[in-house]
Amino acid sequence: MLFKNIVGQEEIKARLIHSVNENRISHAQLFLGPEGCGSLALAFAYAQYVFCKDKKEEDSCGICPACLKCQKLVHPDLHLVFPIALSKDVRVSDHLIADFREAFISDQYLTLQGWFSNLGAENKQPVIAVDESAAILRKLSLTTFEGGYKIMVIWLPEKMNLQSANKLLKILEEPPAKTLFLLVTENEDQLLRTIVSRTQLISIQKVPDKILTAVLQKQHGLSADAASKISFLADGNYASAKRLISENENAALYLRLFQSWMRACLKFDAVKVIEVIDEITPLKREKHKEFLNYSLGILRECLVMNYATTALVRLQGEELEFVKKFARFIHAGNCERFIDEINKSSAAIERNAAPKMLFMNLSFKANELLNITVSA
Q: What residue ranges of the chain have pLDDT lower than 50?
């Protein structure tokens, strides 16, 4: 992983590079940042820079044997720990290391949801269990393969259970020589205070809108208006921005389905409702969630139109024309409940709810809510 491939975070990159060149590498560092800011990618780029045999002023060389191994996450002195779904055959990260390498290499802004989706384990609990701590202690007790640092990257250490976390305390305080821990977290408050106190904090911020907009234009070929809209909605989360691009590619389909669905729900035309549900149901689960997220976006734009100003509505073309007509049905009397029902449905999809039953139940709720008057 090269620093140059990470969106923004220039100050953090410079700080990490300086620490290596000045030989001031703290043995345990806590990369703290929200989802989609690039914290895991930064940890891997930092590890690659430490291992690089021909370091440059602003990045690793990218072509030496150490860099090539790091880019494939196969460097023998780079050890990885990440949340897993425990089963009889899966007890530690090494049991899924090939899957993780493939997932990260294909998406360097990998999220926990994306990782578990790749595993087909969305309805299971992510955990770093006590067996993992024993594996970490064993690996770090060995000598290095290439004579330099041993680097242990722990992604989302907040998923450690109490036994696992407690086992790491001593080695974090007194690690073997030339050992570097990089803990990458999104929720510092969920970590043991004793773990946080043993690490140097590297605080990573959201990607600024201006930088994210420019990247979306350059790397994804979006227009300035489209990139600005997605950057605003993503709120500094590059992973969310890429998801929104995917959703926008399906916007025409989702708009047509949402229009038909709401029209059928308003007077509850059972035949039309079933027709729309029959069209939605065959889509994959991720598409069901995308469609519900799209529905939430339409509701939010309706509220903006009703209670702010049309100039703030971030829609164009057919979507804007539809919202102008539909906005009168979304108001203070029903919006909170409507959004809550859609969010609950999205959560139910995560738990493998039957889509046909779910969307029929949501249709009944929509009929009730759409017919609440503004005065309510």
A: 376
